[in-house]
């Protein structure tokens, strides 16, 4: 296990908010079918462990049904609220965003979140629905209940509709992002609009998407930098200015991930991984919304 006293670097968003470049996720493996019932103590303990290691960026969502656990962990961690960057997302109650944020804050036991995201654009059947939802998000920001507001799983078409009437642009888009799913120019588009990118599933290239054309290069780079292939995958995101959201219940693995703060890939190495990744397509989430070969 890496013994590192290091701080995770941050990225400044278009509204001046700074977001840590590595986040600890409370979805995926931690997902619960219901938010009622007993508190999931293993999850609470895992979040507290992550906070102790220095993961101050904590990523949640109402649909994960783990906001109560996140709130308990924050309270029990003893770390001041000002040090933490807390994200949650709205999807289940997308038709009433003002009520949804209040419900989430109550479950979290917080007065505000640092980042509030529309979890998915797929609730909308028209541009007007996307625009109406975003207007409600702007109201949440103005109320002070969220310092920053953004989106998740948006593509260029969703941004074009949203930005057409937005008074406040989204600060970030959290989407599945790894060498095997680069969304055909979405990152440059967002950069041109001043909208940051956050990646979930950043380790897919070294886990469920194996084997693939990136394998040899990942192994080579891991040897070069004396780290794991997973840490190379995280660094590929970070070196593009992309926030990486990952998770684990294992202290050793979370500790080792912090080694990503101790090295950088060269621009050539980032490009080599990107090019190798284009030889394979893998989508781990939202498959039902896309054709099998749709790389958008």
List keywords for this structure.
10 helices, 296 residues, 8-stranded parallel β-barrel, alpha/beta, two-stranded antiparallel ribbon, globular, 10 strands
Describe the protein's architecture and organization.
It is built from ten helices and ten strands. The chain is α/β, with parallel strands linked by helices. The longest helix has 17 residues, at 127-143. The N and C termini lie far apart (37 Å).
Shape: globular
Q: Secondary-structure element sequence?
A: EEEHEHEHEHEHEHEHHEHH
Largest sheet: 8 strands, parallel, barrel
Helix/strand class: alpha/beta
Please give the share of residues in helix.
25-40%
Unreliable runs: none
Count of individual helical segments: 10
Average pLDDT confidence is: 93
> Order of strands across the biggest sheet?
3-4-5-6-7-8-9-10
By DSSP, the count of extended strands is 10
Strand-residue proportion? 15-25%
What is the distance, rounded to the nearest whole angstrom, between the alpha carbons of the first and last residues? 37 Å
Describe what is shown at a glance.
This protein has 296 residues and is α/β, with parallel strands linked by helices. 36% of the residues lie in helices and 16% in strands.
Give the secondary structure arrangement, pairings included.
Blueprint lengths: L9 E3 L5 E3 L1 E4 L15 H13 L3 E3 L7 H11 L7 E6 L6 H12 L4 E6 L8 H17 L2 E7 L3 H8 L8 E5 L9 H8 L2 E5 L14 H11 L3 H10 L4 E4 L4 H7 L9 H11 L19
Parallel strand pairs: 3-4, 3-10, 4-5, 5-6, 6-7, 7-8, 8-9, 9-10
Antiparallel strand pairs: 1-2
Helix pairs in contact: 1-2, 4-5, 7-8
């Amino acid at each position: 296990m890496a013994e590192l006293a290091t701080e995770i670097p941050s990225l400044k968003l278009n509204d001046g908010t700074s977001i840590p470049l590595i986040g600890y996720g409370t979805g995926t493996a931690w997902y619960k079918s219901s938010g009622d019932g007993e508190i999931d103590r293993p999850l609470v303990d895992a979040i507290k462990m992550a906070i102790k290691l220095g993961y101050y960026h904590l990523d949640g969502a109402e649909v994960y049904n783990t906001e109560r656990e996140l709130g308990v962990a924050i309270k029990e961690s003893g770390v001041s609220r000002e040090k933490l960057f807390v994200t949650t997302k709205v999807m289940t109650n997308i038709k009433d965003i003002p009520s949804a944020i209040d419900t989430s804050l109550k479950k979290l036991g917080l007065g505000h979140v640092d980042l509030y995201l529309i979890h998915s654009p797929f609730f909308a059947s028209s541009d007007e629905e996307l625009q109406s939802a975003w207007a409600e998000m702007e109201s949440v920001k103005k109320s002070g209940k969220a310092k920053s507001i953004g989106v998740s799983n948006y593509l260029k078409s969703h941004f074009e509709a949203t930005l057409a009437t937005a008074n406040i642009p989204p600060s970030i888009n959290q989407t599945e992002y790894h060498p095997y799913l680069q969304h055909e120019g979405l990152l440059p588009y967002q950069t041109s609009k001043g909208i940051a990118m956050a990646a979930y599933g950043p380790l897919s290239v070294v886990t469920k998407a194996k084997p693939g054309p990136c394998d040899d290069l990942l192994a080579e780079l891991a040897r070069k930098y004396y780290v794991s292939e997973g840490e190379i995958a995280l660094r590929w995101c970070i070196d593009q200015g992309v926030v990486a959201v990952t998770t684990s219940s294992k202290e050793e693995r979370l500790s080792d991930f912090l080694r990503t703060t101790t090295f950088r890939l060269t621009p050539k190495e980032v490009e080599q991984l990107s090019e190798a990744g284009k030889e394979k397509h893998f989508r781990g989430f939202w498959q039902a919304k896309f054709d099998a070969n749709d790389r958008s």
